[in-house]
Sequence to fold (562 residues):
Amino acid sequence: MKKFGFLLTFALICSWAAYAQDEQAPVTLSGALQTDMLFPEEDEAIGTGTYEDRFLSNTYLDLNLNSKYVTAGARLELLQKPLPGFESDFAGAGLPYLFVAGRYKWAELTVGDIYDQFGSGFILRFYEERSLGVSNSLRGGRLVLSPYKGIRFKALGGKQRVYFNYSLQNKLGFDYSSGAVWGADLELGINEWIPKMQENNWYLTLGGSFVSKHQPADLSPNSFILNLPENVAATDVRARLQKDNWNFLVEYAYKFNDPSQDNGYIYRPGQALMLSAVYSKRGMSAFLQIKRSENMSYRSDRDREGSAGFINHMPAFSMTHTYALPALYPYATQIADGEWAFQGEFAYNFKRKTPMGGKYGTTLKLNATYIHSLKKEFVDGFGDKEMLKGTDGYKSPFFGFGDETYYTDVNLTLDKKITKQWSITAMYMYQLYNQKVVEGHGINGDIVHSNIIVADVKYAPTKNVSMRAELQYLHTKQAEGQWVYGLYELSLFRSLMLYVSDMYNIDATKTHYYSGGVSYNWRSHRLQVAYGRTRAGYNCSGGVCRYVPASRGVTLSYNVIF
Fold:
């Protein structure tokens, strides 16, 4: 804490000295308030159980002070009684996020809590995702240097935030991982040094990263039987090439042996390779992505489970669906076990006054995802985690495919404006979801095969009135069987919206998950009040998932940006 206070004071003095050179530099204060509340009710039909508290809420207040040379920020979190589904250690209140950053010419120094990412995040990504309860910021320092065009260097280090923690030994109320993290990243814009590349519209960026964590071995309960490495390093190299309408990316990451709770304390190194190609021009776009990853769970605390303590992030190569039934079975990246992942998309906009385009044009989009297991040859012939502890675990040929398909998603979407007032979005989707792998159990079989149809109709008779209706149907013989979903929205004066919806399980439970509410927007304020049921399931973003139990009650949300 003394070192942290010294660095914070040093950054303030340096920043203020630079600021004093320009007395006319404006100072602005900005911020945001977000609060989500639930007044829960018991409901035997959906198994909500008994609530000890009749009021649950997640509240965040962000404040930022900005000037030409200095930026400072803080966040107050009030999470004493968090919303359902957040891990028990998530509860607490305090100021877990606080920083001061000073800038002068080509240098920037930040002291405090840091969010950052190296490359695609394969070996380092500190970020916040409130809907998942993720806030793995690093408390320490960061230096960013851009001494010459085309050169950008970062160096950072500190301890990672885990959760709130109130105890006699920790009076501040913050819990930080027992392991320290430090790293550096260098990006070179090669095209900025070669004029002919710019003249011919060639852009080439090269990047490299190094990250290491330090965690004393004697802090682990397995230290008596295993020789645990106290320092675990990871490296990442990448190259991005752009030419006219084309964009290519290749990235490779390697993590040295890192026995942990996630991988069953094996000593096999981890690695990840990603290839990406994108083509885009007016009226058409296409992309293809390929990723192979294995044993890439990288935490500042080797013994931790759940969603906390991750240093890195492995993105899911699956489409993030916004419609209710296509999002019923979302995919979670198998970060420790590894996977082959393929995703491709083709979108085409048929021009107006053509047979397919009609009077207003038509957009057609095809998206496909395929995710499969790796081929593994376990050292003892079978994959029992307890038996593999302390060994290399397995061998895996790089181009080998295992026996299991984790996830498949093929969807075709049509967007069509029929008249000035009417438009429609229609989608068909086939999904294969390995429930046993993603959730740890299977219902009526391990694999869920689903066929889903979505129709979304919009009608806007005037500038101040618009209506939207959704009808969705999911057919499967596995899990809970068939579902149907309906939604109606009415928007008035572009600020007031009312909605009603219902999601009904036809086969297994024959239960209605109804909801209705109203929201109002005024300038930078947004208020929403709703009442209804929420189905138990997984909320996912970028391949990271949080289980949300069933609930019923009144929800109240308020957001303001100032």
Observations:
- The chain has four helices and 32 strands.
- The longest helix spans residues 2-20.
